[in-house]
Design brief:
Elements (H helix, E strand, L loop, with lengths): L3 E10 L2 E11 L4 E5 L6 H9 L6 E6 L10 H5 L2 E4 L11 H9 L8 H7 L15 H13 L5 E5 L7 H16 L3 E5 L3 H7 L2 E6 L2 E6 L12 E6 L14 E2 L5 E5 L2 H15 L4 E6 L3 H8 L14
Parallel strand pairs: 3-7, 3-8, 5-6, 6-7
Antiparallel strand pairs: 1-2, 1-4, 8-9, 10-12, 10-13, 11-12
Length: 309
């Protein structure tokens, strides 16, 4: 059984369809990333899954429960961990006190000292929350989300304010939890985070899911055009190449193709035969961010491109 199942989910505010006929499933132990611009419907969808907001139409099951059913609300919440975008804890509590109190809400919580170590706050255990930096507060948010040892963890922009080292630490924590069987729903504006963590992603825009798939295949990334780049030694002429290439302004040669295996085979066979070094050879496809921007309709402002003002 899926950890989360959503069918024909809709929510309307006045004349605005905040969520319109949304459908997806999240399998046990999976990391599912919900991506979209501000106002796209991510937060409304997540709040409905958490039971904080009611839906107008559709079917929603979270860990086998309907989040809108008040008779099973407690059972669902005991198995659910939530990391919101903003800390909602009394600032005069210490880090340890906040974690200890939240642990008491769950039937089988993680040990507080273990959570402090996992989120890197051992040295701040007795510090009051109001004295924490922004990044440290986000670490506490993460600790509060995992203290209950949840079956489903909802992470809403979990690494905002983290430095690169702390972000990688948070990623390792998420991987460790999914390795232990926890299911994760993630919202993030960091495409590298989605690519590093998610088994599958869904892009929501104007209240509708417009694409779903693995990070590698979303929007046809796995079958789209590839760009091969390299430099030639000074003694090798461009005309000697066995395949046509374009010279960029920086002197790098580029070959754009949707048959990169064939082109690479021809190119490397020639280089090996004639002893030519292909300096800095790389093969690149569209990034997840490229696909995301394309799907959500982003267009560069050509009028201001290159402006230094």
């Amino acid at each position: 059984m899926a950890s989360v199942s959503v069918e024909q989910l809709s929510k309307r505010y006045g004349d605005i369809d905040a969520v319109d006929d949304v459908a997806f499933e999240v399998e046990p132990g999976e990391v599912f990333a919900l991506l979209g611009p501000n106002g796209a419907g991510k937060t409304t969808t997540i709040e409905i899954l958490e039971g904080f907001r009611t839906r107008d139409r559709g079917r929603v099951e979270v860990l086998g429960f309907d989040p809108a059913d008040p008779t099973t609300s407690r059972q669902m919440r005991e198995r659910l961990g939530v990391v919101l975008q903003e800390l909602a804890v009394e600032p005069f509590l210490s880090v340890r006190q906040a974690l200890t109190r939240n642990a008491g809400y769950f039937p089988a919580p993680r040990p507080v000292d273990e959570v402090l170590e996992l989120v890197g706050l051992e040295a701040k255990a007795d510090a009051r929350i109001k004295t924490l930096s922004g990044g440290q507060q986000r670490r506490l948010d993460l600790g509060l989300g995992i203290i209950g040892n949840p079956d489903l963890l909802v992470l809403d922009e979990p690494t905002t304010g983290f430095d690169p080292t702390a972000r990688r630490g948070a990623w390792d924590l998420v991987r460790a939890m999914t390795g232990g069987g926890t299911t994760v729903i993630l919202t993030t504006h960091y495409m590298d985070e989605a690519e590093a963590l998610a088994d599958r992603v869904a892009v929501i825009n104007s209240g509708r899911i417009i694409a779903q798939g693995t990070p590698e295949s979303l929007g046809g990334r796995d079958v789209g055009e590839a760009t091969i780049r390299f430099r030639l030694p000074p003694v090798t002429a461009l005309a000697d190449l066995p395949v046509p290439a374009v010279v960029t302004e920086t002197g790098v040669l580029e070959i754009k193709t949707d048959k990169e295996i064939e082109v690479l085979a021809t190119l490397t066979s020639w280089a090996l035969r004639d002893g030519v070094e292909l300096i800095g050879l790389t093969v690149d496809r569209l990034t997840l961010e490229d696909i995301y921007l394309r799907l959500t309709g982003y267009e560069p402002d050509t009028a201001t491109a290159g402006s230094t003002s």
